[in-house]
Each structure stands twice: as structure tokens, then as C-alpha cells.
Amino acid sequence: MAFASSPLLLAELSKWCKEVEIEEAHAILLIGVPATTEVSCIEDAVQMVKALWRVRVRDLTVGPSPGTLLILCKCREVIDPAVFQLNYCFLRVKSHGRW
Q: What highest taxon heads this organism's lineage (predicted)?
């Protein structure tokens, strides 16, 4: 399922951005991150995607699957959907596997 075709995920992103006062154009939502992953590992892994530039974790909550997190990140640069069209980005973080 592509993120753009999921009204629930889009609604969650929009609502969450308002709650933590982040512009949606600067926000990304990470899904399925293992709950044991440290924030610094998450930020390092996401910043490997050079198109995102500097990324900071702003908030997190229990994910859709057991033992996972849903993470809201703020990017320094605006995310242009015309340029940045990743539906899924699998990142490998040390011993935490893919997410």
C-alpha cells in the first residue's frame, strides 16, 4: 500500500503535525520502526536518504504492529512530492533489521 493512497496515514500525519506544530511540508512519518531503536539511530538512518537533509525525531507513538513505533520526523528542507517519491524506504539500522 502506498502512503499517498492511505487516507488514514495522511489524516494521522496531518493531525500529528498540528499537535506538535510542524508544517506538513517538512514532515515525514516512519512506520514499523522497532520499539527498541534509539532516537539517534533513527535520525542517523533517515539522514542517509540525502534528499531529506537534516532530520529530527519530533514525536513517537505505538506503531500498527506489535513491538513497533510510528515516528514523526521534521526535515529542515521542504519535502517536494514531485521530486521525492518514495512510497517505501527500507532502512537497515545496525542489528534492528529493516523498517
A: Eukaryota
The pTM of this model reads: 0.78
**Sheet containing 27-34: order of strands:** 27-34, 68-75, 55-62
Q: What angle do CA 84, 15, 25 make, to 5 degrees?
A: 30
Quote the strand ranges of 20-99, DSSP E. 27-34, 55-62, 68-75
Distance CA 26, CA 24 (A): 5
- The DSSP H or E segment spanning 71 is strand 68-75
**CB of 70 closer than 8 Å to CB of 63:** yes
Residue pair 15/7 in contact by the 8 Å Cβ criterion: no
pLDDT tens for 19-74 read 999 999 999 888 888 898 889 988 888 887 777 788 899 999 998 889 999 999 99
